[in-house]
Amino acid sequence: MPIDEKLLVKNCPYCEYIKNLPEDVKLYYPSDRKSIHNCEFIIIECKECSNPLVIYGEHLSELTKESYGRILYKCKMLFGSTIKVGNKHRVIGDHWGLHRVGVY
């Protein structure tokens, strides 16, 4: 879901990472790297475990049910309806993130 220029905080490691996503990082969503800065969240491949990783673009530690539903919907569209999205998430800095999206 595109949003109008979300707030990217200078010196925030995750804002900087989102803004300058390395070319060798597999991007699942959005499909166009030029659209990253306008997306509510991104889905990338974790370099450590190769599982999908969701990083929410705003500085939030908790999501609304609607936002979580959009993440779940997009994960199921990308990875199939048997995908499991754990309810344990991480707050990295103050970005909500979901690690280990997969079929369990």
Account of the protein in words:
The chain has 104 residues and is α+β, with helices and mostly antiparallel strands. It has a domain at 1-50 and 61-79. It is 21% helix and 20% strand. The chain contains two helices and five strands. The chain has a five-stranded antiparallel beta sheet with strand order 1-2-3-5-4, covered by helices on one side. Strand 2 (41-45) and strand 3 (52-56) form a beta hairpin. It is globular, with a radius of gyration of 13 Å. The model has no long low-confidence stretch (mean pLDDT 79).
Topology:
Elements: H1 13-19, E1 27-29, E2 41-45, E3 52-56, H2 65-79, E4 90-92, E5 95-99
Antiparallel strand pairs: 1-2, 2-3, 3-5, 4-5
Quick summary:
The protein is an alpha+beta fold and 104 residues long. The chain contains two helices and five strands, in the order αβββαββ.
SSE topology string:
HEEEHEE
Helix share, percent: 10-25%
- Going across the major beta sheet, what is the strand order? 1-2-3-5-4
Q: What sort of overall outline do the alpha carbons produce when their principal axes are compared?
A: globular
Count of discrete alpha- or pi-helical segments spanning 4 or more residues: 2
Q: Major sheet, described briefly?
A: 5 strands, antiparallel
Strand content: 15-25%
What structural class do the secondary elements suggest? alpha+beta
Mean of pLDDT: 79
Oligomer: single chain
Low-confidence stretches: none
How many strands?
5
Distance between the termini: 27 Å
Radius of gyration, in Å, reads 13 Å
